[in-house]
Specification:
By secondary structure, this protein is mainly alpha-helical. The chain has 4 domains: 197 residues, no CATH class; 72 residues, no CATH class; 37 residues, no CATH class; 135 residues, STAS domain (Transcription Regulator spoIIAA, 2-Layer Sandwich). It has a 5-stranded mixed beta sheet. It has a two-stranded antiparallel ribbon with strand order 1-2. Helix 4 packs antiparallel against helix 12, helix 10 crosses helix 11 and helix 21 packs across helix 23.
Length: 513
């Protein structure tokens, strides 16, 4: 990695660790919201060179990928075979693909497989290209540069090869491939997104459009944000700087709002293109300006050439871009680390074969249920003795109070003889109203049984809440020893301080405030 990238990463890291300014219009705050103000004053010719190379590399990658993903709306995997009118649901796709396998277009199938092989070979070459050393002869460095360029821009190279083959057949009057066809030249007109759609069958209202989008209306932004933050964190850790998740959310939101004015697809981060950007030695976000300029130029001057790009080649680009995202090692890792996490992973994976949004929602729901179960059944350390000591290992919220209450009652009051209990709350940083009510009922249960329940290690926010609730019989102490000594004497019902003395009424009122 170039020293300039390291320097930039260190500068970002130092800026991100500074304390936030109180004024939102201060220079530091402006730099956080507009990062160009941070790197532009120090911009150099060396950075310009690296950004230009990186932007060009990403542009040669993004153009064919963009064409491919734009075709996804009407180009399922069929996996590539030239089949038509295949349903989009995965299981129906598999069924109908094999049902209509006899209709496979040989030209599309052969070309698609050849493109996949070429993409795989070029990727392997890229992964095994040795690094350049200053002592290498100029000829070797030049050869290395040519190989690096070809393998980095492999998508553009393979798509161009496929388009050339298709054009050669077009000249002869025989076309064995399904082509992309006409592509609109230039940018779409700048206008607000339509809030209704008029077709030959009538007018679709905004409410009907939202209904048709279904869960995708929530899933797409959520997945886009999660992917962008994951990409940013991955490369921030590699290049030794930190990111601001709020800034990522702001950037993604603003980009999609502006993109909607030109009929853009939803925009998010990309692992593949970000990797190309980083490996190309990008120094600043100016590399994105080069990529954007290259895309705009291609829309103006190259759209006529897009006509001859076979859809099979675009399908190959999609498959080879998405295949590395399937990480089979995660199953083994989760099995060793935490097997319960395999449950939401498996459910999400299987339901995504039905519909992607259903899989994501189901996985999110299962993860939420696992979290709620852990909250509802908090692990509690129990110390037996004349006085029962219970220490919840996590915070107390409404799902947990019933389980905790039953555990305390069963161990302290159900046995013989009945014992007083100490609730060690060192790990409890917050409680809600339902927990307060449950603790009040618990104190009443102990009072009716002639025993006492006292609290130890209460943090200030929790103590304020309990005092404000004015629970009858509530007592608290700073240490377990003080509580045990007090319980061996007179449990009392008035709040006690760390010394075991009643808290004066004016201090109780102050804590309640």
């Amino acid at each position: 990695m170039p020293s300039s990238v390291k320097a930039l990463g260190q500068a970002r890291s130092s800026r991100s660790t500074m304390a936030p300014d109180s004024c939102c219009c201060s220079p530091a705050a402006m730099q956080r919201r507009l990062p160009i103000l941070a790197w532009l004053p120090d911009y150099s010719l060396q950075w310009l060179k690296m950004d230009f190379i990186a932007g060009l590399s990403v542009g040669l990658t993004v153009i064919p990928q963009a064409l491919a993903y734009a075709e996804v709306a009407g180009l399922p995997p069929q996996n590539l075979l030239g089949l038509q009118n295949i349903p989009r649901q995965f299981f129906l796709q598999v069924y109908h693909t094999f049902l209509n396998i006899g209709e496979t277009r040989v030209g599309d199938a052969v070309l698609g497989l050849v493109c996949m092989v070429l993409l795989l070979v070029l990727k392997l070459m890229r992964d095994h290209v040795p690094p350049v050393h200053p002592e290498m002869p100029p000829g070797v460095r030049l050869s290395h540069g040519l190989v690096w360029t070809a393998t980095t821009a492999r998508n553009a190279l393979v798509v161009s090869f496929a388009a050339l083959v298709a054009y050669s057949f077009e000249v002869t009057g025989y076309q064995p491939f399904i082509l992309t066809g006409e592509t609109a030249e230039g940018l779409p007109p700048v206008r607000t997104p339509p809030f209704s759609l008029t077709t030959a069958n009538g007018t679709t209202s905004f409410a009907e459009m939202v209904q048709d989008m279904g869960t995708g209306l929530a899933v797409v932004p959520l997945v886009g944000l999660l992917e962008s933050i994951a990409v940013a964190k991955a490369f921030a850790s590699q290049n030794n700087y930190r990111i601001d998740a709020n800034q990522e959310l702001l950037a993604i939101g603003l980009t999609n709002v502006l993109g909607s004015l030109v009929s853009s697809y939803p925009v998010t981060g990309s692992f593949g293109r970000t990797a190309v950007n980083a490996q190309s030695g990008v120094c600043t976000p100016a590399g994105g300006l080069v990529t954007g300029a290259l895309v705009l130029l291609s829309l103006d001057y190259l759209t006529s050439l897009f006509y001859y790009i076979p859809k099979a080649a675009l399908a190959a680009v999609i498959i080879m871009a998405v295949a590395p995202l399937f990480d089979t090692k995660i199953f083994g890792t989760l099995w060793r680390v935490k097997r319960l996490d395999l449950l939401p992973l498996s459910i999400t994976f299987l339901l995504c074969f039905w519909e992607v949004q259903y899989g994501i929602l189901a996985g999110t729901l299962v993860s939420l249920l696992i979290l709620l179960h852990a909250m509802a059944r908090p692990k509690t350390q129990v110390s037996e003795g004349p006085v029962l000591v219970l220490q919840p290992a996590s915070g107390l919220h409404f799902p947990a109070i019933e389980a905790l209450r039953e555990a305390i009652l069963n161990q302290a009051l159900e046995g013989s003889p009945r014992r007083c209990a100490i609730l060690e709350c060192t790990h409890v940083c917050s409680i809600d109203y339902t927990v307060v009510l449950g603790l009040g009922d618990l104190l009443e249960d102990f009072r009716r049984q002639g025993a006492a329940l006292v609290f130890v290690g209460l943090q200030v926010p929790v103590l304020r809440t309990l005092l404000a609730a004015d629970l009858k019989g509530f007592q608290y102490f700073s240490t377990r020893e003080e509580a045990e000594n007090h319980l061996q004497q007179d449990p009392g019902t008035q709040p006690y301080n760390s010394c075991g003395d009643p808290v004066p009424e004016h201090k109780v009122a102050l804590l309640k405030a």
